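User: Run a structure prediction on this.
Assistant: Running it now.
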Amino acid sequence: MKRIVIAGASGLIGSELTERLRARGDEVVRLVRGKAAGPGEAAWSPSRGELDPAVLERADAVVSLSGASVGKLPWSKRYRRELWNSRIDSTRTIVTALERVEGPKPALLSGSASGFYGSPGGGECTESAPAGDTFLARLCAAWEAEAMRAASFTRVATLRTSPVLHPLGVLKPMVLLTKLGLGGPLGSGRQVWPWISLNDEVGAITHIIDRGIEGPVNLAGPTPATNAEIGRALARSLGRPFWLPAPEFALRVALGRDATESLLTADATVVPEVLIASGYEFTHCTPEAAIEAVLG
């Protein structure tokens, strides 16, 4: 039995992780903004840098998944600032509290994204690849740097999470368009999209906790797929056509350059080298299998 503290426990990944950990007998404490509702919750305020270090005492790990949703489009100048500050403030608050914990300090599993690599195109991005130059890549690099301040006194793993193939994840807008018969490639459709199923996202996080893994970890499915291949798999699952392309210039006009380059037309073959080397076994090895599991 472990004691795990989770920030961002109300989100798609955090809620599933909470359920999985509790199902196997672990104690989970959810960090909540506002008043705590019971012993399974603790109050904090990342915007004000407030987190009682006593909440983290006796914990085996702290999993930080907090941050404004990257799926909320378009990214206005104001929302880009919220994307940045929500991640930096929450990570800084947790690291500061960890440093003040008396006795053994819990490990820190800090959120990041496969967007760390930007859009290099070609080649493989293992955990040793450098950061890219898109807005999301710069954000991830700053986010991870904030988390790594804790590496001098505890184990730190940064979770470079790929877009989750789930109706409440990256598939949400794609499902709507596909059901309307408007599914099609985004940009050229040939760009490689990192992806992961929700089941493997949560399984990988528990694996990292249990195996004592540290450093950057790519949370990505083991089989590369292009944007068009993922879109076609979704269309097949829904029994709808896949034919209407969205030109890159139109995406830039509608959603802005930063969101388009960071998410929709980014081209990165992200390889889960650390997970595979540490013995993690994927439940869903292809995007088709991941999509079928949640929509079939």
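The domain at 3-295 is CATH 3.40.50.720 (Rossmann fold).
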